[in-house]
Design goal:
Strand content of chain B: 25-35%
Helix content of chain B: 10-25%
Largest interface: A-B, 26 and 38 residues
CATH topology of the largest domain in chain B: Rossmann fold
Order of helices and strands of chain B: EEEHEEEHHHEHEHEEHHEEEEEEEEE
CATH architecture of chain A: Orthogonal Bundle
Strand order of the largest sheet of chain B: 6-7-8-3-9-10
Oligomer: heterodimer
Structural class of chain B: alpha+beta
Largest sheet of chain B: 6 strands, mixed
Number of helices of chain B: 8
Structural class of chain A: mainly alpha
Shape of chain B: elongated
Number of strands of chain A: 0
Largest sheet of chain A: none
CATH class of chain A: Mainly Alpha
Number of helices of chain A: 11
Helix content of chain A: over 70%
CATH architecture of the largest domain in chain B: 3-Layer(aba) Sandwich
Bound molecules: adenosine-5'-diphosphate, magnesium ion
Chain lengths: 263, 354
C-alpha cells in the first residue's frame, strides 16, 4: 500500500471520529429518558408536543418563502452582473457579505425602528406584516450563501457566450433564462436553497425579537428547561438536514455536466 | 460586380474615447467567403459583433440583402454564428443543441428532427445525436456548433476564430471541412482569424485589418503578392526586408549595403538620399542564379537550419539578414556558416514598402 493512501485513510478516520462521536453521544443521551433502559420516550414527547409541530411548520413555511424571495432576487441579479456589469461584482460581493458582519440583532433593531406601527411602512402592526418582515430579514441573512452558491453555479458556464449563442439563434430573454441559464445553475440554486433552509430553521434572534412563533425560539425554550428533549431535538434537526443533503445529492445526478472549455 | 449581399458602410465603433474600429467598409457578394485577418486587438471581433448585433456601431450602417439591419437585435437578424469557445449548451444533447434555433423559430418536431439528422450527416457525426457536449472532443464540439449555426438556414454565417482553441492537425482538417460545407450550401460567410495561413488557404477574399481599419481587401493571391501596405506585407507570409538608400529616383536605383540594385520602375515621390525598405519573399530568392533572375547581392551565410526536405538559410548582407529556402539534395551538402554567398532574384519580385 502506498503511504499517501494510508495517511489519507488516517486523516479520514480522525475526521469521521471528530464528526460522529459527539453525535453518537447526543443520540445515546437522548434515549436515556426512561431510567435504566434505552427508549425513544424523549422523541415521543418532542414530536407529540403541539408547539413543536406549530413552530416547526411556521419555520418551514418561512423558509420556503425566504427561498422563493432569495431566488427571485439573487438569480437575475447574479446573472445580470456576470453578463453586463462585471465591474460591479466586487461591490455586490461586498454587499452580500454584510449580513455576516452586521449582527442580526442590529438588523432587527433597525427593522423595529423603521417599520414600527406608527411608521409610514407599519409592517409590525399586523401578524402577517411581521411575518413578511421576518422573511425579508431571513432573505438578507441568507444572502451571502445564496449569492455565492448561484454565482459559483454561473461561473461553471460561460454566461456571456451562452447567452449570445442563444440570442443569435433567435431566442428572447425568457427562453434564455428558462432553457439555458436556469437548467445549468439549478443545482447551485438548490444548494443555495438548502443552506437557506438550514439557516431559517434554526434562526433565533430575529424570530425572537420580532416575537414570531418560530422553531428557533421554541428550541431555545426547550433547551433551557428540559434535559433529554433538547438532545432528541438536535438529532431530529440533524436528520432533517441530512435528508435535505441526500435530496440534493440525488438531484445533482441530473445536473448537466459542463463541457470542457477550450484551454 | 453583383449586388453585394452584405454591405458594411463606414462603420465606426468607440468605447468612450477609445475608437477601436474606424471607418470600416466592405461589400460581400452572395455566397462569398471573406476572412478578417489581423493581429489580436485590431478590431476583427468588434466588426463581427456589430454584424451580429451584439454591439451597436457608433456610426455607419450595415445592410444585408438590401435591408438596413444596423439597429436590429441579434435575435431578429437571422444570422448564424460560431464562437471561439464552442458555446454549446451543456445541458442539452447534440441533437437538442442543433435543434435549438429550429425550436425557437417554432418548427414542427418532425421537420426539426429531419433537419437535425441532415445537419449531423453534413458534419459527418451522425452517431453523436444523443451525446452531451462534455462527451465530445474540441473538434467535434466545434462541428456541432457549426451545425447548430447553419441549421436554421441563416442568411449569413459568422465565425470568430472558430479553430484557435483546437490543436494543429484538427485545425487544418476542420478548416477545409468548413470551407467545403460553406461552398456546398452557398452561404455568405465571414471568418475571423489571426492565422494568415488559415486565411490564405480557404478565403475567396481577405480583409487584412490593423488598428481598427481594413488595410487591404483582396484575393489571397493579391494580398500575398501585391501587399498594399508595409503592414500587410509583413503580416502576411514571411518577408525579407532590406534597408536601402535611393541613389537615382528617376531610374529606380537603390543602394543596399554599398551594392546597387535597379528596380523595375521609377521611384515616384522619393529623391536621392532617401532611405526606403525593399521586401522580398523567401521563395523569390535563391543561392544559384535561376532563369529570369537579373539581380544579385553578395553576402555571407549567417545561419543554416536543416528541416528535412527543406534547408532554411539566412544570409547576412551588411546589416540586413535574408531568409531563403533551398530543397534538400542528397548529393550536395548544405552551405556552411561563414561561407561567402550570392543571392539572386528577379528585380520584378522586389516590393517597395512605404
Ligand atoms: N466592450 C469593450 N469595451 C472596451 N474596449 C473594448 C471592448 N471590446 C473590445 N474592446 C477593445 O477593442 C479592441 C479590439 O478588440 P477586438 O475586436 O476584440 O479585437 P480582435 O478580435 O481583433 O482581437 C481591443 O483593444 C479591445 O481592448
Ligand atoms: Mg477576437
Amino acid at each position: 500500500m502506498k503511504s499517501g493512501k494510508f495517511w489519507a485513510w488516517v486523516v479520514f478516520g480522525i475526521g469521521t471520529a471528530y464528526f460522529f462521536i459527539p453525535l453518537l453521544a447526543t443520540f445515546e443521551f437522548s434515549m436515556r429518558m426512561r431510567r435504566g433502559v434505552h427508549s425513544f420516550d424523549a422523541y415521543q414527547v418532542v414530536l407529540g408536543d403541539p408547539r413543536f409541530q406549530a413552530t416547526f411548520m411556521y419555520s418551514v413555511i418561512a423558509a420556503i418563502f425566504t427561498i422563493i424571495l432569495g431566488v427571485l432576487i439573487v438569480v437575475p441579479a447574479a446573472y445580470w452582473i456576470r453578463l453586463r456589469l462585471p465591474q460591479l461584482r466586487p461591490i455586490v460581493e461586498f454587499i452580500t457579505l454584510l449580513p455576516l458582519v452586521i449582527p442580526a440583532i442590529v438588523i432587527v433593531f433597525g427593522y423595529i425602528r423603521m417599520y414600527g406601527s406608527n411608521s409610514p411602512l407599519p409592517f409590525l402592526s399586523s401578524d402577517l406584516g411581521a411575518s413578511a418582515l421576518l422573511v425579508i430579514g431571513y432573505a438578507t441573512l441568507a444572502l451571502p450563501y445564496m449569492y455565492r452558491a448561484v454565482d459559483t453555479g454561473l461561473r461553471t458556464i460561460d454566461v456571456r457566450t451562452l447567452t449570445e449563442a442563444a440570442q443569435i439563434l433567435g431566442a428572447g430573454w425568457t427562453t434564455i433564462i428558462t432553457r439555458v441559464i436556469l437548467p445549468n445553475v439549478l443545482i447551485a440554486v438548490l444548494s443555495g436553497a438548502f443552506l437557506t433552509f438550514a439557516i431559517v430553521i434554526g434562526e433565533f434572534t430575529m424570530a425572537s425579537l420580532l416575537n414570531r412563533p418560530a422553531f428557533g425560539p421554541y428550541l431555545q425554550n426547550i433547551g433551557a428547561n428540559r434535559a433529554y428533549e433538547p438532545a432528541a431535538l438536535a438529532i431530529i434537526a440533524f436528520a432533517i438536514t441530512w435528508g435535505c443533503m441526500s435530496l440534493i445529492q440525488i438531484l445533482s445526478r441530473f445536473a448537466p455536466k459542463s463541457a470542457n472549455r477550450p484551454n | 460586380m453583383a449586388e453585394p449581399f452584405l454591405s458594411i458602410q463606414h462603420v465606426r465603433k468607440s468605447y468612450g474615447t477609445n475608437t477601436v474600429v474606424q471607418d470600416f467598409s466592405l461589400d460581400v457578394e452572395p455566397g462569398e467567403f471573406v476572412s478578417f485577418l489581423g493581429p489580436s486587438g485590431c478590431g476583427k471581433t468588434t466588426v463581427l459583433r456589430m454584424v451580429a448585433g451584439f454591439e451597436e456601431p457608433s456610426a455607419g450602417k450595415i445592410v444585408v440583402g438590401g435591408k438596413d439591419i444596423t439597429r436590429l437585435k441579434p435575435n431578429q437578424r437571422n444570422v448564424g454564428m460560431v464562437f471561439q469557445a464552442y458555446a454549446l449548451f451543456p445541458n442539452l444533447t447534440v441533437a437538442q443543441n442543433i435543434a435549438f434555433g429550429l425550436k425557437v423559430a417554432g418548427m414542427p418536431k418532425a421537420d426539426s428532427d429531419r433537419r437535425v439528422a441532415e445537419m449531423l450527416d453534413i458534419i459527418k457525426l451522425p452517431q453523436m445525436a444523443d451525446r452531451y457536449p462534455y462527451q465530445l472532443s474540441g473538434g467535434q464540439q466545434q462541428r456541432i456548433a457549426l451545425a447548430r449555426a447553419i441549421a436554421p438556414k441563416p442568411k449569413l454565417l459568422l465565425l470568430d476564430e472558430p479553430l484557435s482553441a483546437l490543436d494543429a492537425k484538427v485545425r487544418v482538417s476542420l478548416r477545409e471541412e468548413i470551407r467545403s460545407i460553406q461552398k456546398k450550401l452557398g452561404i455568405t460567410t465571414i471568418f475571423v482569424t489571426h492565422d494568415q495561413e488559415e486565411a490564405l488557404s480557404i478565403s475567396d477574399r481577405i480583409a487584412v485589418m490593423y488598428g481598427g481599419r481594413a488595410e487591404q481587401v483582396g484575393t489571397p493571391f493579391e494580398i500575398y503578392n501585391r501587399p498594399a501596405t508595409k503592414f500587410v506585407a509583413n503580416f502576411v507570409g514571411t518577408l525579407n526586408v532590406l534597408e536601402g538608400t535611393v541613389t537615382d529616383a528617376g531610374a529606380g536605383r537603390v543602394r543596399v549595403n554599398s551594392q546597387e540594385v535597379a528596380l523595375k520602375g521609377k521611384l515616384n515621390g522619393s529623391k536621392s538620399g532617401d532611405t526606403l525598405s525593399l521586401a522580398l519573399r523567401p521563395e523569390a530568392i535563391s543561392l544559384a542564379r535561376q532563369p529570369g533572375h537579373d539581380t544579385s547581392l553578395s553576402g555571407e551565410i549567417a545561419e543554416v537550419h536543416f528541416l528535412g526536405s527543406v534547408i532554411r538559410v539566412r544570409v547576412g548582407i551588411g546589416g540586413n539578414t535574408v531568409s531563403l529556402d533551398t530543397f534538400n539534395n542528397s548529393t550536395t551538402p548544405p552551405p556552411a556558416v561563414g561561407d561567402k554567398a550570392d543571392i539572386s532574384f528577379s528585380s520584378g519580385d522586389m516590393l517597395v514598402l512605404h
